[in-house]
Amino acid sequence: MVARDLYEGTRTAGAGDINGIQHLLQPLEETGAVIKRSNEQLLEEIDKFTVVQRDGSIIACAALYPFYDEKCGEIAALAVAPECRCHGRGDKLLDYIEKKAISMGLERLFLLTTRTADWFVSRGFSECTIDSIPESRRTKINLTRGSKYYIKKLQPIYNRIIVDKVG
């Protein structure tokens, strides 16, 4: 597999993707796994979403909300279509989001979850306290959801250039 094929179909979402994102998120909203977002809210935040498209359909999405002052970002609304799960789509999307965060100068990612902690832990996230969350985000957390907080320190990407020693 060539590197460009790894993220084939992965791109920043646009206004035309709102229905596809809603289609992915609706079942998760109904079970309480993710918070409900109106079409208006999605439209306002569309540039925060990354989508994976295959054959004209959105098969995965995730949002990245940067907190530049704290050099961290929140991952939210990560969803993969049921028929595409267990094929590494979530892993590739998370990897893409991590690389995007690094390119934005972010050093850590955090998330709030009520159900998928094991999946994130197996991908390098560790449980943290609410104090690890930026204060501006902390004040907006709905404590009644019972979310747990997870954080991951990002590893900078260095170009691997081999230089022959001369002399």
Automatic annotation (TrEMBL):
Keywords: Acyltransferase, Transferase. Pfam families: Acetyltransf_1 (PF00583). It comes from the Eukaryota. SUPFAM superfamilies: Acyl-CoA N-acyltransferases (Nat). GO terms for biological process: L-arginine biosynthetic process. GO terms for cellular component: cytoplasm. Residues 8-155 form the N-acetyltransferase domain. GO terms for molecular function: L-glutamate N-acetyltransferase activity. InterPro entries: Acyl_CoA_acyltransferase, GNAT_dom, NH2A_AcTrfase. This is N-acetyltransferase domain-containing protein.
